[in-house]
# Entry
Amino acid sequence: MIKVLTVDDSRTMRDMLRLALAGGGFTVIQAVDGEHGLEVLNESGADVIITDINMPKLDGFGFIERVREDAAYRATPILVLTTESDPAKKVRAREAGATGWIVKPFHPEKLLDVIRKVAA
Amino acid sequence: MNQPANIGASERRELTSFWTGEQEYCVDIMSVREIRGWSAATPLPQSPNYMRGVINLRGAVLPIMDLAERLDLPPTQPSERSVIIVVQVGERLVGLLVDAVSDILSITPDQIQPTPDVGCDQSKAFIRGLITIDDRMVSEIAVERLLPDLEGLAA
Amino acid sequence: MDELEEIKITFFQECDELLGDLESGLLSIDAGDTEPELVNAVFRAVHSVKGGAGAFGLEALVRFAHVFETLLDNIRGGKTALRPDLVKLLLRAADVLADHVAAAKLGGEGDAASTTAMVEELETWISGGPAPSPPALPADLQPNEDGIVFKPVTLTLPEVDEGPREEVWTITFQPMDELYAKANEAGLLIREIERLGKIDVELLDDALPIFDNLDPETAHFAWKVRLRTDVPEEKIREVFEFVEGHCSTTIVREASPPVLVEADAGPDIAAIIAAAQAANMEAEPAFTPLKVDVAAVESQPPVALAPAAPVAQVAQPASLRSPQPPQGEKVNQATIRVDPERIDKLIDLVGELVINQAMLAQRVAGHGFAASSDVGRGLDELEQLTRDIQDSVMAIRAQPVKSVFQRMPRLVREIAGQTGKQVRLVTDGENTEVDKTVIERISEPITHMLRNAIDHGLETPEERVAAGKPTEGTVRLAALHRGGRIVIEVGDDGKGINRPRVRQIAIDRGLIAADAQLTDEEVDNLIFLPGFSTASTVSDISGRGVGMDVVRKSVQGLGGRISISSRPGFGSTFTLSLPLTLAVLDGMVIDVAGQTLVVPLTAIVESLRPAAAEVKKLGAQGGVLAVRDAYVPLVDIGRVLGFQTTEIDPAEGVVLLVDSEVGGRAALVADSIHGQRQVVIKSLESNYQQVPGIAAATILGDGRVALILDVDALVAMRKREPLRMPEPSIQAAE
# Structure
């Protein structure tokens, strides 16, 4: 089963992601900020990563950059959660190493769509 | 036991009937939580005559009211055979001390008459109506009217 | 419950926390903390509220949060500088946001008028600050950088409403190196195109160098895909949305639908990939294996398109560099969430355990086992164990009063606004812990005390200046443990109680005699008398004016006490004292007129068996006890409660010396003492009502109900003349 790591400081958003992902048959693991995300990744690994941008301790950009530094995760699709369609954020996310993005609020179908787009 | 008060067209109600002060009364079965035997109550200071005190009902404190005394009849002399009918009024539980439980009645509205005035205030205040069954007269008690006015009694 | 509904509940809980963080962050900034992370945290709080609200379609909330967030974003980005008046505005905006959340919780929307006003103020700051600034922007939102006005998104995707018409497109794309660095994959892109219609794929490998020069990390291939589909061009473009800039793409509509080579029902991606791979293999000829880092190759989407496996790779990765090496335990994940009902149930069960253990002890003792026997000692251990369990379980439910204190700053702001006073709230001891049963009940008394302090205690700014005080009044809210109880103090530095006026009002209302001799302290506490206050300050909590007498009554209902002390010109302090828990009590079990009563241990100073010589009569009905150097009034419990008409001779019975807050010292007379025990408190009010002189009830080892004495009330009853004569029927029939 494909394991998805969701990193977001909002409990609500983590729950929403979990709900949407469960519908697609994914296994979900969660982290509450960038720092925690790195720890969890270390411990459990992940096949796909979805991360928020605004988080305490280590934000989304920093988190993605760190993840990409590790060869093992260079091929792992990373999606960022953005509000609206903020192009500056998207560019920055891509520069950091993000594979794609999901605009929130998201429809569960769309989320699964996007994941499918970037994950085999 | 938990038949709704209004069923279809017939509007039958069920009531638990009992004896106290040598008269027969009844209460709506929907308000009866349980029936148990008498046990000695811990008296409450400065409370009305008809409040006998409180007993332990599985960990909760249940006030016991002598129904006869509440109705201005001579006080009950509780014995081993006395009965406490635990009724629920709103969020509260109260135990009514009575002599004996008799029956479960099933009646239709036509069997109830309003209470005639016999010059006794208390009776009319607490009794919702008179029920005729064969040659018995059973007075229905409105339990919600039994509890003392909570604001007024606090010293 | 519907899962989404559950998440909604989570969302509102989270909102409460976020709003709390928002307020405390702003208050810290207001107090002068310039830590930049604070502004970030404040921004994130509003951002998160907006995010979740959007997910649930709470449009009014989203709209307001967006404006608020925009201003905060400007501040954290340095575009707008923080100033005291701006911070005050932000605090008020936080209040409005909280209102919106509260309204959304009930399924409604926040007040439009106050929202519009607030939005205007916020936008003034967004566009450069107040005073000389362009006219206020309309309540509509600013367009974002794209020139797109943010619209709350509904959960359905917009439908493309062009009439479907099949066309053929030629798509060529050539990924650049960076594409692979983001874990995008050509194979996936092709697969996405395939979902749009029928395709025919051609690999363009002209650019492929010989293997010697092959760099696995760069891109060498391009693809040409013919797509027959009826979807509009945008949808095709969408496939490449993530790789824009990392891939050169052309999408060309064919003039007329050409004949597409349809080899079979659907193109076989695997076959195409295999073909591509085969093509790569042909480029092998005489090659010398490159020294390639195997790990790198495996984790790169290889230039030779291997079946798209890398994504599924869950290698045991080398440890990622993280800011701190991960510890064994996650420090911030130390809590677990527990359903409060389960704890309540646990506490009930433990309470039953305590009762049962007491009953067992009693029966065993009744069978003649000595305390020193092994049975006796076993029971002692059992009792100790039970106590420990009870303490531990109660500790689970103990919470810091912080949750109650947190609501107060906003309340203070509102009352200050309503009364035209300037107020600063200082809190102390918010980590003081108290059982959940008490926490829920202290909020209202505190609210009334605060209201009283600000409304009546504090002077207007002008008055304060005239008195040489700072214009801003200070109200101090503190919580502490004292004498086995929790004490809450609300103090102000206002004008104190106007004693002559209070005295006069009491006389006018017939509450005291015109010539009554009262100490200053007694005059201060007249405000608690029923009927004292007829002030109709509308309390938005209860919607009606509340006098301090009502507050005192409700505090007493909790087994608490409330009093006030004052220094004219300097201020007043309310003191509220409550038991630590409404669930358990350490008590002394006594016998009075054949009744078993329990006296709270915290009220007892000492217990004595007086000598006859120490008992003195005073006046017609009273008596005092000589205790060392003082005379202490005697209070016959049985008579005051009406259990009997005669009094116990103190020399024959036992005396409990108590300290009551209202009446000073008193000597309670009982028949005998049974012992000390921890008892589980059972409410009288839940099924009956408050009984004078009685705080609550408990269930003893023999299963009988025993009443718990309210010492203060008892002493007060004794003081009240004339004594009510007991009614004979209180002698209950056994």
